[in-house]
Amino acid sequence: MKKFVLLCLVAVVLASCTSTNHGELVGVRKKSKPFYQPDPYGMVFVPMGSYTMGVGGQDITSSNVATAKTISVSSFYMDETEITNNEYREFVYYVRDSIARRLLGEVNQDYLITENTKTGEVYDEPHLNWKEKIDWNSDEQDIRDALEEMFIPKEERFFGRKEIDARKLLFEYFWIDLHAAAKKEFNQGADYHNASFADRPQGMTDRSVYVIRESINVYPDTLAWIHDYSYSFNDPLTERYFWHQAYDNYPVVGVNWNQARAFCVWRTNKIRDYNLSQKNASIPAEFRLPTEAEWEWAARGGNHLNPYPWGGPYTRSDRGCLLANFKPLRGNYISDGGSTTVIVGHYKPNDWGLYDMAGNVAEWTSSAYDPVSYNITWDMNPAYVYNAKADDSPIMKRKVVRGGSWKDIAHYLQVSTRTYEYQDTAKCYIGFRCVQSYLGRMKDDDPRKMSKVY
Question: Disulfide-capable partner of 408 in 111, 244, 253, 404 (CB 3.0 to 4.6 Å)?
């Protein structure tokens, strides 16, 4: 008994010696490595700042939809160029291969992983085995039969050619409607947009009502070149633009707002899955479309009150060279170096290091369009958002489009010009780029990025 008491006293003494907080409040100390946010590949850092949103150019259309307002924006990362055909093609390939692996898993278990080989944990749903290659031309009948569902039916094939059925390329994902969860009212029988978990009737305790599941066809509308310009010979672009390697580094077009948002979700999952596989605790913020305010702040490049991203009032340099890909003069499309789209990064970047913030292709933002949204949003990170459903009226499906494109006049290239397109519509002159919120300090506390205020 004496030995037991002695051991307890020794343990207490040792515990008091190893404690360094002396009973003071010091917070929870994590054993993992300190968090830092590395620069995402292909993105540039845009520092926080304040600016007057909606001024700097002439409202030649007298639309009065860009009321001047001073706002502040937090720091974020943005893709230095628009998403290219080659980058978006990786998304399409992922969806194609994941569907094929599910089909093959029904006849060959090698394409599925049912348990964790290290821990012995059995998965509720089998994971796809990405190490197992897909033999699209396999001699095995059961493999061919399983993959046949991926191809266009024989009676619909042109010239007997075997092609992947783009209608089958559905990407399933979910997102959490935080705006619905933040609302305080609840109407019996109402949809999730009016539901609040805290104020539900008794017995409703499942938060899954806020988990919205989506299924989006990810294949871009390659016929956009024809249906946007019915009386123009754009057939070669329709046949080659998205798939031909000559257009790998051209901005992807024919992608609607829903597809662009699905791409952001896939890109987020891609890097998170990699970090988890490497046991990396530094899980980055999600990729998303920029808000309208973020886009304009990034496009200005720190140059306040200037109409264009390059910081000047003119569309030509001092040498007379056009500074973007658009429709100059009365329609001399080729005078800027390209008749339609051109390779990304062809023109000089703005002062943040962002390319093509004016011209080439216009860009989707996450913001819903309303002519008076400037007057009702907050002046700190303003965002006017509405997640329109399929049966909503068309006016609720309008999303802000910024930057102008290869077919627009100079007015639409101005950083303050706003226009819109419907979220379920794809155009041959609209693309997108992603942003990522800035979470904390850089690894080395770079003073260029942390201390400078604009």
Answer: 404
Q: How far is CA 268 from CA 88, 239, 332, 389, 435, in A?
A: 14, 30, 41, 23, 11
Per-residue model confidence as pLDDT tens digits over 394-415 = 999 999 999 999 999 999 999 9
Q: Integer distance in angstroms from the first to the last C-alpha of the chain?
A: 71
Between CA 401 and CA 365 the distance in angstroms is 6
Q: What is the DSSP string of 87-151?
A: HHHHHHHHHHHHHHHHHHTTT-GGGEEEE-TTT-PEEEEEEE-TTSPP-TT-S-HHHHHHHGGGB
- Considering only CA atoms, which of 405, 416, 420, 427 is closest in space to residue 324? 405
**Backbone conformation region of residue 302, classed left if phi is above 0, alpha if psi is from -120 to 50, else beta:** left
- What totals of helices (H) and strands (E) does the chain contain, helices first? 10, 14
In our burial notation (b when 16+ CB lie closer than 10 A, e otherwise), range 234-262 reads beebbeebbeeeebebbbbbbbbbbbbbb
- Asked if residue 423 lies in contact with residue 257, where contact means CB atoms within 8 angstroms, the answer is yes
Backbone angles phi, psi at 300, to 5 degrees: -70, -30
Is the pLDDT reported for residue 38 higher than 90? no
User: In whole angstroms, what is the distance from residue 130 CA to residue 281 CA?
Assistant: 23
Q: 67 or 380: whose pLDDT is higher?
A: 380
